[in-house]
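Hey, I'm writing a tutorial for new members on how sequence and structure tokens pair up, and I'd like a real worked example in the thread rather than a made-up one. If someone can provide the structure for the chain below, I'll link this post from the tutorial.
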Amino acid sequence: MEIVILAVVIAVVVIGALGGLLVGSRRKKQLPPPPPATPDITAPPAEPHVGDEAETPRDETRRTIEEVDLPDGGTATVEEPPVVEELEIPQIEVPEPTAGRLVRLRARLSRSQNALGQGLLTLLSREHLDDDTWEEIEDTLLTADVGVQPTQELVERLRERVKVLGTRTPDELRGLLREELINLVGPDMDREVKTEPPNSKPGIVMVVGVNGTGKTTTTGKLARVLVADGRSVVLGAADTFRAAAADQLQTWGERVGAHTVRGPEGGDPASVAFDAVKEGKEIGSDVVLIDTAGRLHTKTGLMDELGKVKRVVEKHAPLDEVLLVLDATTGQNGLIQARVFAEVVDITGIVLTKLDGTAKGGIVVAVQRELGVPVKLIGLGEGADDLAPFEPAAFVDALIGE
């Protein structure tokens, strides 16, 4: 019996101990946190729709423009819109009429040429015209670049006429000298620049000469002469070897409304010349002026190139004029240049430039005798309208003065 009671007590104690252990372990374990409450979401304000009432404006303090502080105490300025510059259209110039242009420029020519005319008049006015005096007359003519053969002819005619005349008043001497000089210059030569072919237009003019003679400038001035006479002109910039030659020619053309055909720098000059004539025919231009290259005339390459340009142009139509530009100040060297060019391109006319400087007027006679072709134009200065058709009588009057 005691044993049973003891077993029951032990069982009770064991059960109690086990129960305490279970309760302690439960207390040590933390329960998971409760789930968070659902957050309150504030809905964005609804956008106004068509027909909704606008919100009642709030009362705010407003200031007038006078109460607003401006920088530096100035007044409010309104910025003006930027001004758009208009493209400048080049103004077309009206060239000076060519009729009588040399007469108007006579004073300029006579200032540099009086040494020839006045020198001859002084010698002829001597009381006794002996052999020494006639030799001085010859020297004066030779110094003026008249040339040996023309000088001898002039002196012989003067000696005969002075001998027959007997008395020699100043007016008689001036008239005598004027008449003989005009005969020497050649009043009967055809000096018209041929720009009107008989069959069809345009007239084709090729301008040749070495660099430095004023060839490109002369071509531009010739365009002004033609425009002044009522002709339409196309310019061909076939001098492709000299830097800015095409730009220079185009500038001259733009001044009088002449179109310029050009190619790439260093390109084929013959191709440019061909295109210029082609365009001149297409637009019905009256004249095509072709400016050619002008490197040293002693280089065979230049002469070959000029010959090629001439042949290519003549595939369209024959050339009406080949004008050789010579610097009148070069004297006899100019004659050498003239001779070389004439062998290649058949010169039909001469343009003498810089005749208002240190040039001697006798070069007109010499170059005509050398080539057998007339001087058709002369340049008397740097002005745009200082290129004049050559008139023998006006030229001689400038030589001997009034």
